[in-house]
Amino acid sequence: MEIVRTVAELRARLARESAVSCVPTMGNIHDGHLRLVDLAGGQAPFVVTTIFVNRLQFGQGEDFDRYPRTFEDDCRKLEGAGCKLVFHPDEGEMYPEPQVFAVDPPPVANKLEGRFRPGHFRGVATVVLKLINIVQPQIAVFGKKDYQQIHIVRHMVDQLALPVRIVAAETFRADDGLALSSRNRYLTDAERAEAPRLHQALSQVRVAVEGGDRNFEALEFAADALLARHGWHVDYVVVRSRRTLMQPEADERDLVVLGAARLGNTRLIDNLEISAP
């Protein structure tokens, strides 16, 4: 597996490849990322994984400085998963001067995660656009755990006519249902034992809606209360349209329940797609 750190070197190397798939990451690779690499390899044989902790998507007081950086271990895992090349630029390479041009995402970026992390999706969209321009893949693979992120990235790709197809991979979970995340390592042992409750709360909402209950507000309140009783600080549990991420129309069936809550000092997010009757 090759490791490339500059844009010029990457472009020269990829000029020899006819079909490239890309898995953008911030590193701290876990089994969920490796599933994305495996899926990417089935889409286009030359898989490029990018590892870059993007300062632009971190807000004031967030965990940029303590975000886990485990590059050597990441490379061992990625090589075993069939990744062909890792692009690992430093900040000076990605942002050789202040990034004054940025992607201004649509209003949905200010809701859900955007409400609690102002400017987050502006940073995400800007770095994803930049990585797509640098790597120029035919396929880019993202996990569904960051559901709002995929929604915004797809919208950006469509509106800017980018020559890349976005592939969404199902969330990879531990045996107890917890969605894998780089931030799970922040959890204490007691918090890790409690953490699957977020998935359980969202699952209860899904079961109810798929059983015909469309009193979304009551279901959201019940899930919020369940988590609060067990020590969570809930940002939101909401049912939304998959198509718009806004409140569903009366007869809309393709839905998603999304949740974000803090357990101790760790903020977890999750979601489940719903097919309403």
Describe this structure in words.
- By secondary structure, the protein is an alpha/beta fold.
- It has two domains: 2-169, Rossmann fold (3-Layer(aba) Sandwich); 182-269, Pantoate--beta-alanine Ligase, Chain: A,domain 2.
- Helix content is 37%, strand content 21%.
- The protein contains ten helices and nine strands.
- It has helices at residues 7-14, 31-43, 71-81, 91-94, 113-116, 120-135, 147-159, 189-194, 197-210, 216-229, and strands spanning 2-4, 20-25, 46-51, 85-87, 139-143, 165-169, 233-241, 254-263, 266-275.
- It has a six-stranded parallel beta sheet, sandwiched between helices. A three-stranded antiparallel beta sheet has the order 7-8-9, with helices on one face.
- Helix 6 crosses helix 7 and helix 9 (197-210) packs antiparallel against helix 10 (216-229).
- The protein is globular and about 55 Å long.
- The termini are far apart.
What distinguishing features does this structure have?
alpha/beta, Pantoate--beta-alanine Ligase, Chain: A,domain 2, Rossmann fold, 6-stranded parallel beta sheet, 9 strands, globular, 2 domains, 3-stranded antiparallel beta sheet, single chain, 277 residues
